[in-house]
Design goal:
CATH class of the largest domain: Alpha Beta
Number of domains: 2
CATH topology of the largest domain: Bactericidal permeability-increasing protein, domain 2
Helix content: 10-25%
Distance between the termini: 14 Å
Number of strands: 23
Structural class: alpha+beta
Radius of gyration: 35 Å
Strand content: over 45%
Largest sheet: 7 strands, antiparallel
Number of helices: 8
Shape: rod-shaped
CATH architecture of the largest domain: Super Roll
CATH superfamily of the largest domain: Bactericidal permeability-increasing protein, domain 2
Length: 475
Amino acid sequence: MVTLWWVLTLLTLLSPEASGSNPGVRVKVTQKGLDYGRQIGITALQEKLKSIKIPDMSGSESVAPIGKVSYSLTGIQIVNLGLPKSQVTLVPDAGVSLSIGDAFINLHGNWRVKYLKFIKDSGSFDLAVSGLTISSTIAVKSDETGRPTVIGLNCAATVGSASIKFHGGASWLYNLFSHYIDQALRKALQNQICPLVADAINEMNPHLKTLNVLAKVDQYAEIEYSMVDSPVVSSSSIDLGLKGEFYNIGQHKEPPFSPIPFTLPPENSNMVYIGLSAFTPNSAGFVYNSVGALSLYITDDMIPSSSPIRLNTRAFGAFIPQIAKQYPGLMMKLLVKTVKEPSVTFKPNNATLQVNSTVTAYAIQPNSTLSPLFILNLDASVSAEIYVTGLKVAGALTLNEIDMTLGTSYVGPFEVTPLEKIFMMILKVVVIPKVNAHLREGYPLPAIGNMNLVNTQLQTLKDYMLIGTDVQFTG
């Protein structure tokens, strides 16, 4: 039952103060996903029902022609229980309905009787309960933390038929009044089934509390996966919108842009589909840019030793002579820094990143002070390869082209065109590898407990990426 989480979680990621704004992330659970959850959930429920305890029973009945017969039933235990037919269905605009049919329970116990005041007898009995049906509606809410909580409602359990067979002693006598005992046992069963179903549903809540509604990414950022509107429940799927927004840790400042509306395609071959809009990585860019994390100092020791281009005034003096004249024989340092948040664009089969930055070049004086040489405006176009690894989305960038203009020169005017190949090389061998090392760490997807993603596929569509995946649970 626990692993129906992702049916119920997707219904219950309801923030108490949902904003109603466009989501950055959309999630859909298909019928295939529902069926997987049902299979595992029914196994858990079956084990729960095996804990049914039938108390010892005693009473008396008038059985013709014997008269009053006192009886007791003790040591009643379940020896077999089966839930061969079950179904979890979505009720449009309502919730999840669980139904079980043709269930059976076999019990064994001991009997003892006394009649005609002095005659005693004893033996054993077998009780076969068949045609058992169980139905329950699962209501979903949010707790005070914005995480899901579930409650079982409207449970009904019906025992279709029960037959009891007595063994040993004067079993012919008991067969005369077995229907009296049948009724008592059936009532005892029915009284316990629904409370156990409710317990099984309630036991999901500690697992649902592991949902990473707010997931830490690194020292700078966390990502929020709270709901922005109510889920849309149809007869075949659950569709919902999550915020999918990066924030500075502890400082939830909204970016100057909003998610663009998008809808998921009618795919159904996987259990779950996750749509990640460009808003999500763009909100990440806003966060990292605002905390100054998108800057990098580059020194000569970061340039491959095989490179003929070195970061010193002699090498750059070949292109800008006045540098070599004013600052002869000095090493240089570059500061690459974004001037605004990078912008990610998703198009069919294509993800690109546009970065607007500056490059400030310094000469390193013998006393380690930095003398500014020039500032270049550098716009770079980068292709992004995005993939799913474990429970994270990761990526790798490839530099396409750059456009440079002179922003400020402290050594007089010069042409920047001859420098383009140099900075193209520096970006490719220094900056891009460092960015990719960070991107390989990835950022977390919505997840709960011991969930794993399998058979995962990712495709880039207009304005969003679509992840189709199946789900497995371990442990």
